[in-house]
Amino acid sequence: MKVLVPVKRVVDYNVKVRVKADGTGVETANVKMSMNPFDEIAVEEAVRLKEKGVASEIVAVSAGPSAAQEQIRTALAMGADRGILVEHDGVLEPLAVAKILKAIVAKEGPQLVILGKQAIDDDMNATGQMLAALLGWGQGTFASKVEKDGESLKVTREVDGGLETVSLKLPAIVTTDLRLNEPRYASLPNIMKARKKPIETVKPADLGVDVTPRLTVLKVEEPPKRQAGKKVASVQELVEKLRTEAKVI
Amino acid sequence: MAVLVLADHKDGAVTQPTRSTVAAAGKLGEVHVLVAGEGAAAAAAAAAKLPGVAKVLTAEGGPVLAEPLAALLVALAPGYSHLLAPASAAGKNVMPRAAALLDVQVISDIAGVVDADTFVRPIYAGNAMATVKSADAKKVITVRAASFDPVPAEGGSAPVEAAPAAADPGLSTFLGAEIVKSERPELTAARIVISGGRAMGSAENFAIIEKVADKLGAAVGASRAAVDAGYAPNDMQVGQTGKIVAPDLYIAVGISGAIQHLAGMKDSKVIVAINKDEEAPIFQVADYGLVADLFKAVPELEAELSK
Ligand SMILES: Cc1cc2nc3c(=O)[nH]c(=O)nc-3n(C[C@H](O)[C@H](O)[C@H](O)COP(=O)(O)OP(=O)(O)OC[C@H]3O[C@@H](n4cnc5c(N)ncnc54)[C@H](O)[C@@H]3O)c2cc1C
Ligand SMILES: Nc1ncnc2c1ncn2[C@@H]1O[C@H](COP(=O)(O)O)[C@@H](O)[C@H]1O
User: Fold this and answer.
1) CA B286, CA B307: separation in Å to the nearest integer?
2) Is residue A93 left, alpha or beta, with left meaning phi > 0 and alpha meaning psi from -120 to 50?
3) B132 and chain A: CB distance < 8 Å anywhere?
């Protein structure tokens, strides 16, 4: 079966972002950009399914600026077969991305789409569920294990209280949690090979998708800053302070 | 128009994050609560007692699946201006699906209500707070429970009605669950949380933290590194991609203080850090820092609390 893997270009998870002085957003000029960590897990899972003979072809899709090609290249170096860049400068909310992906699904006909559970920039945790809704497919979100089981897919999910297992009719949507797998590093030869793999570029309008945002960002602020407190010398002093000063125990 | 809260419930009670969601919903209009799934009838009786709730709808059934539940929310949506749920695993699973069916952009994990269209939400692991205004006719929202004081569990007496039946699209089936049983309070509801990190070294070693937790009536949490290493179950992970907690007291043991971990606990009232590295970033947010080997300090802490 064909597998589609949407990958988002985001500020690298090691960067401590700074809010812009004018309160319009966060500073993204000259900061390191990477593939969203959950999407690396999604690509890895797709590649493992291919290695097991379950997946036949892996298509990586990114919606964003032309620089998002870098993240598609990373996916190709990890083992994806080809890429699609849906080029758009400006905000793309999960609903818009889901509509774009729905159009790509209509063209490509995958049996499975594996997304990250959450983009670490907007922290929305929504696109996979929204795409599943628009396609009328079943969803296995926050997956920590994915197994093909005849004509369906068995997905173990990380839920409140522990784990839950569901069976999804194919085609289906999966979103990845952190413990699904550990993504590989692309080897140098694979990075070289990835340069020759094709990336097709389209625009949202070519797909007939209106990406107008529904949310207007009125302002972006720093959260209240915590002051570092004091060091205590001993456990006795700690307990004493918690009892008499902080009064929390 | 009224607002609808989708409740999380367990053992015949609605969860504390649900009570926080009812508090957030109360700022938007008359609150109705939907209780769905296994044990819904008992939990609906509990929901009916929440102050400020005007009506409870029940849909008793098997384990909740996102697809039929989203269909039910869509069927109920015409009667409501806002649909809210706690930003729990359950809420995050179903609300974006319902939103897409309604052609609405979901507003995830709100930490503040400015007005009926405008909400505050954390982005970039809580390193920035965005105020966003929705242009959608209907709002579909998940609520960061730690940011809203829960309504009390008792005081109201709302009528309970059966929700209309919604068709199950039959896209998925429930196979089973492995739920960790614990006598300790829920992480997201506990007044005190003590968490262990990679430095715990093994699942067995978590016992020293559990002993302190039992002394304090605290919940036990963990860093991602501890969960990944198998020292603690996934359900205990605190952070950007785990649980968000804001207890009166948070004790971080052998946790370095990565931004993704801080994202889940930095709104706690009092933070204690025990770490052998005095340069560990966790000390930058700790009210009380103890530079010590945890294997010595934690048993000492337990002994001291017994005094
Ligand atoms: C996409 C993404 C999402 C993430 N989400 C989360 C999340 O939700 N929650 C989360 O926690 N992390 C998350 N992380 C991981 C995060 O970046 C850190 O890797 C993780 O929090 C580190 O865990 P730790 O502090 O236990 O381990 P370490 O960073 O290894 O720290 C261990 C600490 O223990 C101290 N120590 C060692 N031995 C002792 C001793 N004997 N006594 C006392 N102290 C000792 C050390 O000095 C050190 O400070 C995420 C990462 C990514 C990429
Ligand atoms: N612009 C995008 N391009 C490709 N994939 C995306 C994009 N935005 C979101 N996604 C996918 O949707 C997941 C969840 O994102 P979000 O709903 O924004 O938290 C990500 O991990 C990606 O797999």
Assistant:
1) 25
2) beta
3) yes
Taking only the tens place, the pLDDT of each residue in B92-113 is 999 999 999 999 999 999 999 9
* Rg of chain B over all Cα atoms, to the nearest angstrom: 20
Most A CBs within 10 A among B113, B123, B253, hence the mutation to make, goes to B123
Q: What is the helix (H) or strand (E) element at residue A149, kind and residue range?
A: strand A138-149
Produce one character per residue of B72-86: b if its CB has 16 or more CB atoms within 10 Å, e if not.
bbbebbeebbbbbbb
Axis-axis angle for helices A127-135, B66-76 (nearest 10): 80
Query: Please, which residues bridge with residue A196 across strands?
Result: none
Strand segments (E) across chain B: 2-6, 9-10, 13-14, 31-37, 53-60, 80-86, 107-110, 112-115, 118-123, 128-134, 139-143, 160-162, 172-179, 192-196, 219-222, 249-253, 270-275, 288-291
Residue B163 and residue B56: Cα distance in Å, rounded? 9
The mean pLDDT of chain A is: 97
Are B218 and B297 members of one domain?
A: yes
Q: Do A238 and B272 touch (CB under 8 A)?
A: yes
Question: Which residues, 6 or more positions from A51, have their beta carbon under 8 angstroms from its beta carbon?
Answer: none
Give contacts of B 198-237 with A, CB under 8 A. 216, 224, 227-228, 233-235
Is residue A97 in contact with ligand 2, taking CB distance under 6 Å?
A: yes
A198's CB contacts (< 8 A; 6+ apart) are: A82, A83
Selecting from B63, B108, B292 the residue whose C-beta is nearest the C-beta of A125 gives B108
Task: Check residue A228 and give its pLDDT.
Answer: 84
Task: Kindly indicate whether the domain formed by A2-223 is annotated with CATH number 3.30.365.10.
Answer: no
Peptide bond into A171 cis (omega under 30): yes
B243 phi and psi angles, rounded to 5 deg: -90, 145
Contacts with B99 from chain A: Cβ below 8 Å: 95, 126, 130, 133
Exposed (0-12), middle (13-18) or buried (19+): which is A108, by Cβ within 10 Å? middle
Which residues of B does the annotation place in the binding site? 198, 223-224, 237-241, 254-261, 275
Complex prediction ipTM = 0.97
Q: Which ligand is nearest to the CA of A84?
A: 2
DSSP H helices in B217-265: 224-228, 259-262
Tell me whether B70 touches chain A (CB under 8 Å). Answer: yes
Q: What is the mean pLDDT of chain B?
A: 97
The CATH number of residue B240's host domain is 3.40.50.1220
Residues B120 and B266 in one domain: no
Overall size of chain B counted in residues:
307
Residue-number span of the structural domain to which B56 is assigned = 3-162
With a CB-CB cutoff of 8 Å, which residues 38-57 of chain B face chain A? none
A160–chain B Cβ distance below 8 A for any pair:
yes
**Does B208 reside within a domain?**
yes
Specify the pTM. Answer: 0.96
Top residue of A101, A164, A181 to mutate, by most chain B CBs within 10 Å, is A164
